[in-house]
Design brief:
This protein has 2 domains: 6-55, no CATH class; 63-171, DNA Binding (I), subunit A, CATH 1.10.30. The radius of gyration is 21 Å and the shape is elongated. The chain is 27% helix and 13% strand. The protein has 7 helices and 4 strands. With 183 residues, it is an alpha+beta fold. It has helices at 6-14, 56-59, 69-75, 116-122, 143-149, 156-164, 172-178, and strands at 18-24, 44-49, 92-96, 111-115.
């Protein structure tokens, strides 16, 4: 799974390098500056390319996406993993379950979203020492989950394709099935 710029996708299509999948997108194009005529190009929202993909998720099973707060907060649904309340991104922070000062790592499996109050309460201690309980276990997103969590606009047929590539045990399945369908 990888996002191709439109020009690259249509260049591959013209060279018979694309295997088309999914429903067509509405026509799009620009206006020719000299003639004033609109160029129309029709394409599909999901395509498969023939040949090797440079998708980092395909290179090996152990793909670990880059860790950043924006994606972490989306993974945890903007909930503090200690008190369970929902907050805006500006009110959240990254908490290391096992603090860095105690040998913990800055990795997906050791970080959770925490509100500032809970993060300050926990401080340099483990949750057990601070008498706090995690409401969810941190996990490393797969490549498909990471594409979803990056927060780009995802069309319905693209979302269906991504969901099919989420691990069966993904906590995101439950969250997405609870969301109302887009109209």
């Amino acid at each position: 799974m990888d996002r191709l710029p439109g020009r690259r996708a249509f260049a591959l299509h013209g060279a018979d390098g694309l295997l088309v999948r999914a429903a067509p997108l509405p026509p799009a194009g620009g206006t020719n500056a000299r003639t004033g005529r609109r160029n129309v190009v029709e394409g599909n929202s999901i395509v498969a390319t023939a040949g090797h993909s440079h998708n980092p998720g395909n290179l090996h099973q152990g793909y670990v996406p880059p860790l950043n707060n924006e994606t972490l907060f989306r993974r945890d649904g903007h909930l503090c993993m200690y008190c369970g309340q929902r907050f805006t991104s500006s009110q959240l922070s990254r908490d290391h379950v096992t603090p860095l000062s105690r040998g913990g790592r800055d990795a997906w499996s050791n970080v959770v979203t925490a509100c500032r109050r809970c993060n300050n309460l926990k401080a340099w201690r483990t949750p057990e020492q601070a008498k706090l309980q995690l409401i969810a276990i941190p996990f490393t997103p797969s490549y498909a989950e990471y594409i979803y969590l990056k927060g780009r606009r995802v069309l319905a047929d693209q979302m269906e394709y991504l969901l099919a590539h989420f691990p069966r045990s993904s906590p995101l399945h439950k969250r997405l099935s609870a969301q109302p369908a887009a109209s």
